[in-house]
Specification:
Helices cover 31% and strands 18% of the residues. The strands form six sheets. A nine-stranded mixed β-sheet has the order 3-2-1-4-6-7-10-12-13. Strands 16, 17, 18, 21, 22 and 23 form a six-stranded mixed β-sheet that branches. The protein has a two-stranded antiparallel sheet with strand order 5-11. Helix 19 crosses helix 20.
């Protein structure tokens, strides 16, 4: 007999009803979960092994206790400002219908009602803010453009997925990818679903054909089908951000699915610094323009990759973005808390919430000239590879010979961008709003496409910055990489009473301990050749990768707080975190930690670093985020 809670309601219902699986088989609580994975599909006998993994059981207990699992805080916080995936679960599932399937003694659930699955990573687009493992086309392009080791086609064990569907009372299935329709076995899974199942398809809108088969007749038997079509701006911006995309084809497929009697359509955009300035025109288009027939809209503000965050912008571009969005909100008007009366009002309310959250997030962190310089470098190389002109807001920074090219990372920051936007991304004027509609023009210059390869002989050159999350801990890893030469700038801030002579001795001890443990001990080998990894620790007073407080010891140290009793081995351990490595010792707070008790530097300080601790340095991806989100809003 299962034992279930009587009156408690969890903070979030997701781990009690659902499972999400990425294209590489990694399983998580939901598409917004940024915590440790629950397992991999290829490593379990059946999908139930993921549903009742230790991570899932722990998350259920935490949510019932009113605690927030690692990786879920950002989503719950964001839900206070705009609709998120958390709201989706709360709206779709009632705890009273779920509780009986939960065994409070074991933490297991006996039935899963919602499956979010990427069947494979097949995709024909190369979206600039996406990740290599999610798109075969993007991976191929970055291999030629940046020397990235190609990921290749990956397909999940579809037979396991089908068995799981047959064994559970699935109410909702969301297909994502890649572009799920591109996967040849998409219809094999679709045809296993009961006609009562609600089918949701997250698509780039490029096709309605799987293999050579039109999927629309296969969708007609379901009571409800929901398309979530990704569209990141008006024509110029969409085709710039989503390389190889065809704006007209997306509109044609959008029109075809909106005409199906059992289908609703949501338009979703991922907000980055690339489409930020086009946001008012985009919202105008989906509210009362070309795509106004959409049933709903959703937006996600990207947090990873870091170079595409809206907060990377220098002050003058932040101000330009704020002005355009504030003008749009003024033009749209404030609903003033009145209940929406029709589809336009519902969409307009969401647009207001998303736009206000963008204003909140633009200035969420201090401006980093280094991160903006990295963004400009990546954008310049990408534009050159595809043979396209930069977006107008960045033209002064990216045009060869322009002042912005030489001053992007200087102490005074880049020059002010032109405040004259192109017609492709005009702000909406306050008087451009008609009753139940926002008016804006959408000229559409056609970008040329080229194949200028810029692949280099080494893994990567540039700043690396990524968020790491392990168990209940999270931190930022950062360093500069020039092929296999790694430089880490550390600013030491001593407490009062620690003398300069003591600091000089500590700097020597710590630098020697770090470099002896990490430098000239490992190699990167791949299609670009073989090269030894070197590590250079630089003690700086400005522009650090990491800031460390130094206090009198002995005391308990961590990555950002060291003490005067710390040895070179202790510094080498904390330095390992700066490179992105989690702890490997036993921790009562992390019973599922793996690997553990390894005898390495990340376990007991005195042990050695291993090749696996530096393998990310050998990956020639321009971004090496351990934790990322692509914003699969399903609202």
């Amino acid at each position: 007999m299962s034992q279930k809670p009587e009156t408690r309601t969890p903070l979030c219902i997701a781990p009690f009803v659902s499972l999400a699986i990425w294209a590489d088989g990694e399983s998580i609580i939901c598409c917004e979960d940024k915590g440790p994975q629950a397992g991999r599909l290829g490593l379990v006998d059946d999908v139930s092994g993921l549903v009742n993994s230790e991570k899932m059981r722990l998350a259920r207990r935490q949510f019932l206790r009113g605690e927030v699992p690692a990786g879920c805080r950002a989503c719950l916080d964001e839900a206070t400002r705009q609709p998120t995936v958390h709201n989706y679960y709360q709206q779709k599932f009632d705890w009273r219908d779920v509780a009986e399937a939960y065994d409070e003694t074991t933490g297991d659930v006996s039935r899963t009602q919602y499956l979010l699955i990427a069947l494979s990573n097949l995709c024909t687009y190369s979206c600039r803010m996406c990740f290599d493992k999610l798109s075969t086309r993007l991976s191929s392009d970055r291999h030629r453009m940046l020397g990235v080791e190609p990921v290749g086609y990956r397909r999940n064990d579809i037979d396991k997925v089908i068995s799981f569907i047959r064994a559970n009372p699935i109410r909702i299935v969301t297909f994502h990818g890649g572009n799920p329709i591109n996967e040849p076995r998409f219809l094999d899974v679709l045809n296993e679903l009961s006609s009562e199942v609600s089918v949701e398809i997250i698509s780039n809108g490029s096709t309605l054909t799987s293999g050579k088969v039109d999927i629309r007749p296969h969708l007609s038997r379901f009571q409800h089908v929901h398309f979530n079509i990704s569209l990141d701006g008006t024509r110029r911006t969409t085709e710039y951000v989503r390389m190889h995309s065809d704006f007209d084809a997306v509109f044609r497929h959008f029109s075809e699915v909106t005409s199906l009697p059992n289908t609703t359509v949501n338009l979703h955009n991922t907000i980055t610094n690339l489409n930020l300035f086009d946001l008012p025109a985009y919202y105008a288009m989906v509210l009362s323009g070309k795509f106004a027939d959409a049933d709903s809209i959703s937006s996600y503000i990207a947090t990873e990759p870091a170079v595409h965050r809206i907060s990377t912008l220098p002050p003058e571009l932040r101000q330009l973005a704020r002005e355009r969005i504030e003008d749009f909100l003024l033009a749209l008007g404030d609903a003033g808390g009145t209940a929406p009366s029709d589809a336009f009002d519902y969409k307009a309310n969401n647009a207001r919430a998303y736009a206000r959250n963008v204003l909140h997030r633009i200035d969420s962190v201090p401006y980093s000239p280094l991160l903006f310089a990295e963004f400009l470098d990546l954008t310049r190389r990408t534009d050159a590879f595809y043979g396209v002109d930069p977006l107008p807001e960045y033209s002064e920074y990216l045009t060869p010979g322009a002042p912005g090219e030489s001053r992007a990372s200087g102490p005074s920051g880049p020059p002010r961008a032109s405040s004259s936007p192109s017609s492709a991304s005009q702000p909406v004027a306050p008087d451009a709003v008609a009753a139940k509609g926002v008016v804006v023009s959408h000229p559409a210059p056609e970008p040329a496409e080229g194949t200028h390869a810029l692949a280099g002989p080494c893994p990567y050159v540039g700043q690396r910055f990524f968020r790491v999350s392990e168990c209940i801990y999270a931190w930022n890893a950062a360093y500069f990489q020039n092929c296999t030469a790694v430089t880490v700038r550390i600013q030491l801030n001593p407490d009062a009473g620690i003398t300069p002579a003591t600091m000089a001795t500590l700097r020597t001890t710590w630098e020697t301990g770090i470099e002896n443990k990490w430098s000239n001990r490992f190699v990167c080998a791949g299609p670009y050749g073989t090269s030894t990894i070197t590590v250079d620790v630089q003690w700086v007073t400005s522009s650090p990768h990491h800031v460390v407080r130094v206090r009198q010891g002995p005391a308990q140290s961590n990555m950002t707080t060291w003490d005067t009793s710390d040895t070179g081995d202790v510094a080498a351990h904390e330095f390992g975190h700066m490179l992105g490595n989690p702890d490997e010792y036993t921790d009562a707070n992390c019973p599922s930690r793996n690997p553990v008790n390894t005898g390495t530097v990340m376990d007991n300080n005195t042990g050695p670093a291993l090749q696996r601790h530096v393998n990310r340095i050998c990956v020639s991806a321009p971004l090496a985020a351990e934790v990322f989100s692509i914003g699969l809003d399903l609202i």
